[in-house]
Design brief:
The chain is α/β, with parallel strands linked by helices. Among the domains are: about 240 residues, Rossmann fold (3-Layer(aba) Sandwich); about 90 residues, no CATH class. An 11-stranded mixed sheet has the order 2-1-15-14-13-3-12-11-4-8-7, sandwiched between helices. Helix 5 runs antiparallel to helix 10 and helix 6 packs across helix 7.
Amino acid sequence: MIDLLDLNPLTPMHETVRRPLHTETTTSQALYLPIAPPTLGTAGAVIGRELYSGKAFIYCPFCAFGDGLPGGNMIVMGDTGRGKSALTKTYAARQIRLGRRVVVLDTKEQKEREEGEWAALCRSVTGRSPVRFAPGGGTGTARINPMDPTIAGKRQVELVRTIVELGLGKPLDEFAGSALRLAIRQARRRADADGRTPVLADVAAALRSPDAADALAKKRTREQLLADGLEASYVLDRLCGSDQDAAGDLTGMLDGPTSLGVDLDADMIVFDLTRIPSGGVAMTILVAVISVFLEEVWLRPVCECGTEPGRHERRVVDAHSGAWELGAAPATGCRRYTQRKRILVCEEAWHVLGTPRLAALLEKFLKFARGYGLSCVFIVHHLSDIDDSPETQAALKMADTVVVYSMKKAEAEDTARRLGLPAWTAEHITRLRRGVALWKVGEVIYPGVQHLLTEAEQHLCFSSGSMTDLATTAPDPA
């Protein structure tokens, strides 16, 4: 055996050889603190290391799912520049290597690059640029049609009503809601007769020219039915524009046939919303439409082998009750149906959680995430950015993993109170260094998890170029 004392300190072997460790009880207790929380296993994405035990910190909501982690939803928060986006980007990239698919709603623009923060990572992973939206449209931008036939008829009605109510700022009454449903049906009929797909402008036109037969069926006169839906038609005109006025809030984004250049089989899809005014009605409505599109199209059940459930054999597991499960798919050689796992990331998620209507719309994602094989990740600065509405509180309660980076004292105390964290965490959060966060996974708290990046990831996650003083001239070779 080689004596460690005889090794040259500069040789490569010196870098890798380990000194033998005694395994006495007292030594083990000194090396691995008995108060350290348990690990989450060895399967999943490597995050970094747990500072208080020295162990690697590995996390995956799908691998850890069970008694300790009842759901896969996560919320990440902390002051600006503490490492929230870097964590989420590397986490998404590492999950993709495990076979997951990721969708990102990117609302955080890098001004010097004139694109969203996730654009570079998207191109690195898929070789394609994000799906970009911009008021007025233009070259390289995308459009989603809320009346697209890929969205089921009932969901179309719900979605168009949501758009009108968000634009109106209040719920529709029964008369207006009925007039809107009739107008949607009429818009479909007229578009089918012309051999094209209906759009929101068709709904606005149908509201202003109701059918006499529809009025009779509702025991209303045609003039009464017109009055019921007239305000809704004005809202759609304001949002989508008209032949006389092309300055609608959603012009170029929701006012025509779908033009999404989206590969639904891609490992990552990024919706670039950075050009949409923050906090305005356009952002709220666009996120609502994208959410429904994702639910109807992206979240369709599919196995890890790429086949739909109908191509898998049914296997009876209990002859007495007739209970069965999906088994093999002979066409692909897959032995058992395993739901494809997906991750939805909402950057600057106060747009979603801070709007009760949007929080309620996404509640289905959160509540039924386990059935979808979905993990929702929300990134916010502070909980004070989000109101205390019942819809928002319900969304927060469904986040089974909470990651908190450093905050100022008042924000830390508010966070600990609203999330029900132990009292000591408020002071602890204020002392966290950059890149170190408190993690709460289920009911277990990890006080200090240091996020580690590779050199390649540092370039993809760098988002502070405007604040960094870099040399602009080449060094003198002399």
